[in-house]
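Suppose you are handed a protein chain with no further information: no name, no annotation, nothing but its sequence. What can you learn? This example shows the usual starting point.
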Amino acid sequence: MESSFTSTVGLQLLTICCILLFVWIRTEGRKSLPSLNTENIWCCSICTYVYIDAKDDLSTCPRCSSINKKVEE
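A reasonable first move is to predict its three-dimensional structure. Written in structure tokens, the prediction is:
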């Protein structure tokens, strides 16, 4: 059975695409989510909205714009 040039090239492109898809899926599965530091989690004292902010002592709530102070636990 003779194969034409276009079918040979098409088969090679399909093989390369399958290999690249397999490698992409394997590498994406290994990526982990960044770890969340519990020191950056804030709870608003007015509206009880929980949010993330990297500030040290005072933070502004994104929902109600109140100023919150970090409470030592």
